[in-house]
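Example with several molecule types.
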Amino acid sequence: MKVGLLGAGRIGRIHGLNVVARPDAHLVAVADAMPDAAASLAAATGAKAVSADAILSDGSIDAVLICTPTDTHADLIEAAVSAGKAVFCEKPVDLDSARIRRCLVTVEKTGKPLMIGFNRRFDPNFAALESRLRAGEAGAIEIVSVISRDPSPPPVEYVKRSGGLFRDMMIHDFDMARFLLAEEPVEVFALGSALVDPAIGQAGDVDTAAVLMKTASGRIAQISNSRRATYGYDQRIEVHGSKGMLRAGNIHETTVESATGQGFRADPVQNFFLERYAAAYRAELDAFFTACKGGKAPTPSGLDGLKAQILADAATESSKTGKPVTVSLTEA
Amino acid sequence: MKVGLLGAGRIGRIHGLNVVARPDAHLVAVADAMPDAAASLAAATGAKAVSADAILSDGSIDAVLICTPTDTHADLIEAAVSAGKAVFCEKPVDLDSARIRRCLVTVEKTGKPLMIGFNRRFDPNFAALESRLRAGEAGAIEIVSVISRDPSPPPVEYVKRSGGLFRDMMIHDFDMARFLLAEEPVEVFALGSALVDPAIGQAGDVDTAAVLMKTASGRIAQISNSRRATYGYDQRIEVHGSKGMLRAGNIHETTVESATGQGFRADPVQNFFLERYAAAYRAELDAFFTACKGGKAPTPSGLDGLKAQILADAATESSKTGKPVTVSLTEA
Amino acid sequence: MKVGLLGAGRIGRIHGLNVVARPDAHLVAVADAMPDAAASLAAATGAKAVSADAILSDGSIDAVLICTPTDTHADLIEAAVSAGKAVFCEKPVDLDSARIRRCLVTVEKTGKPLMIGFNRRFDPNFAALESRLRAGEAGAIEIVSVISRDPSPPPVEYVKRSGGLFRDMMIHDFDMARFLLAEEPVEVFALGSALVDPAIGQAGDVDTAAVLMKTASGRIAQISNSRRATYGYDQRIEVHGSKGMLRAGNIHETTVESATGQGFRADPVQNFFLERYAAAYRAELDAFFTACKGGKAPTPSGLDGLKAQILADAATESSKTGKPVTVSLTEA
Amino acid sequence: MKVGLLGAGRIGRIHGLNVVARPDAHLVAVADAMPDAAASLAAATGAKAVSADAILSDGSIDAVLICTPTDTHADLIEAAVSAGKAVFCEKPVDLDSARIRRCLVTVEKTGKPLMIGFNRRFDPNFAALESRLRAGEAGAIEIVSVISRDPSPPPVEYVKRSGGLFRDMMIHDFDMARFLLAEEPVEVFALGSALVDPAIGQAGDVDTAAVLMKTASGRIAQISNSRRATYGYDQRIEVHGSKGMLRAGNIHETTVESATGQGFRADPVQNFFLERYAAAYRAELDAFFTACKGGKAPTPSGLDGLKAQILADAATESSKTGKPVTVSLTEA
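Resulting structure tokens for the full complex:
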């Protein structure tokens, strides 16, 4: 497959290099609003640096990877599927659920594959946990817990454009909760505070938050987020069920342990997502190309992207109103 | 100090034997509605089996330990302090907050010490964590997480009289959350389901539950409970703060680990509270007698008992109404 | 059973208090060359402080616990069994194997039970490992590894009288290796160095040592010792076999773990043997009294004491000559 | 740098693909006695499949990687350095120390760089441990322990040509012990048994072995090996010193942990060396190319290869004679 990459920033670079490493895909073109970024990645991968339009209008390109800023995602998805291309797009499709819905209608009409980059589903540890969960190892699912803490908060300027913590950061955890619960949440309650950086609070957002969700059959999900963790990028999941518990956790920088009069010391955990999820990014692209080649719809789908967004919207509202919010994802 | 024990059941027996092991306290009398229970413990400890009234009216007894059924606690506390005795009482004072308040007024009038048996504060691991938290090791407190899962659900008959999961089981976690937060919660939101035993649901209670609480300054507490955990009595706390994280966890039955083609296997965790909290029960009584001898008010106090009950009441209400409940513990 | 205690030092005190806690044994008399030590323990236990001779000649005493200095053990064992008493004696019977053999002949003639205090066999973790090993969980035994490190070296004056590291410290590990191997070693090779304290080297002893042993069928045991470990009392065993591995390790002071920019930190391990082996000392006495009451020979026996001593003698010789030493324990 | 690869088997393939991933090296030619192996790797890397002679006589090739069978190593090293090429050679240079010495004389005369593939030094965990050890974190080194267990024994036909366990398998651990001890061993004592596969014993080799070594200043190293571990490829190192302990261990297949009535279960450890040491192989080649480009002699050197071989020879002799063997590596 011939592949075009839209966006040559940090995450675009990861995907571009991962395409190069695949025997079944050929990265032919890279576009970025910053010409230097495109040129640099093109040089490293053997692709050409071109404009986004050139990629979209190049009939020989089978698939595009969209790694541009969020506010361009929906337009680019629509343009790409309309041009007959398979699309992999970084989360989220848009910060506005209505816009996502319109975009998905367009995608549906074209019948082209769209996959959303919820990379954590492809982490080998989390994927193994989910697979064992599905095989019944924990029995009936009762409580899903997701802990997600970034090493340090983003700049306030980023925060202001981000759609808020629930849409920007916790959206990954909403997707993970759905992935693990295997049943849609029907109710969302959220609490948030600005404890890490007062400027984040002044910008109207929170940096510390927790959510409770419940499904129709009574399964419970709890999520907590912080924009700062001194010991690294904290990424943990745990599922409690009728037969037992399954959990998967962090990866330390090395396995070295020291023991002295101060006790036993292990390394901080891997920091940050490029390192922690390196294998997940590879597996994610593998799933995309495998689905496209096999003529199957890739997962997570655009609808998965919409559902996570609806949960993030509900949490944002709950956090502001102080009241739980009812959602109806099965009709989304 | 001469000590009388009211209630010679499972927990009364623990406390009675712990009194015997102390050089500064002498267990002189044991009472129980079941004469055999009293006689058996009396024989094991060298105390006399007598009636509760005999203990309360014996002027030579300095302190009483109340380990009777919950519905007798408030009356016995009032009778004991009125008789001039220091009182240690198992949680809760009563299932009705109004009754607790009246009881505490009586206690206040007598000026006698009253300590409530929130044993987990005295677990050496949790106590060390709290002490290091207070010393600033995690910095400013941001998220307190408490996980508490019993090995197996109690009989439905017990559940019916228990006041419900939030008052019967999660009350320990409300106290732990207050102990760790170092600031009173102002809002409580609870979700509950009957997933473990349908009969518990038919009895109007839940067996799986989660709570979110927030303090005035924005600190967040999350608690989750299950009435069943196949791998033992699951008791974990974790505090995330500006400087890092402190957590304390379970104790496995032994340190033995096996490794085979199926992987590495460690023992289940200690099961159940008599084993897991054996050291906590000893340290708890030590705190009681040390406070009494030093003329200081013991902690956790009757007021701590009331505050945990108010949180449990709020969670019960939230779970039923589906709405968060505002509480005002500083005025309790 | 009525029990007399010879020796009211650190370890005698442990055993004395453990007797008091048993319903089936009554500590009636305590003797010590230091009258204050005897009086203090007598006061704490309700026993009488008397002379050793008084204990040995008191026909009502069924069992004696010998916790005196090593050079008195053999004489006291002989006197006690000759006086018709069951004997529990701290390791070793004597630093001289020939003296041990003579002592065991006397014991044999009287037919009285003699148990040697290799407490580590009774550690609940090590005992569980051995039991699972015997049940075949690791398959055929191939490599037994024992690591034993004291927190800090003893005074040189103690070292001079101790018989040397192999007889004083590693003797416990020789017994543990025999316990786990389930086949007698036939060859011993030892290396030792004075790396911790030069004065120990000047006194002709070593403070850091390692041993390799082999059994007739080819099983291998490796032991290493250090007289100093900054992180606590390091006590680990591991058995590798045809079906897998079983290991049991240290117990940290608490389960608290902190995470900061410096990484994840757990407590040092329990320090020292009185704390680490508290449960083992209780279980050891339980085995002694249970065997005596049941009319069975207690284990580890005097012969076990002799065999460990023979291995320690062989290691001492190997360390000095630089050559492996052949031993024949099956004929011991 | 232009690179030629001799040997396109399992390990040659790893190195070949790692060269391709480097921006500073270009894999131009691959040779293998099995034409299909060479052709397959050539196709995957864009290199040409040619004869070994063609690589050695191609003046444009700067460096060769030798991944052929052991009995060809010394000849190929000599031919390659004589042809002016930098050489990376898989361990060992030869099974005969005298042949290694002659080869190193030839290398020395040409002045060309030679690096030996002791890959474990480059494992990120072991490298970090060594670096922290060198920085003094454990203080003065006292006891070095290396445990190395393969998942399953090789075919007996392989064993017969292998030079024996000490030269074929434990040679890695001899190198690791030297790497960590930072002082040459002067004495070697070895025990070996055939416990895993009787056919290995009939072939005159052992499959289970342990070694003790001592340095001039009294540092102790203990190594143990098994040709079989049911739970994966067991690779552990531990260094005990005056200030504490440093250890580094295995990597489990995933971080998933389950908890049920049978206890807590983690995955087996990574199996086998291609997976466990994937990062080490990359870092190893990086060290080789970095040294070559910087005009520095790469490490581990041919002399390191010789010294590990001398220790393996000594262990083989000790295992056969039952006596310790003195070695003099500083004069090697």
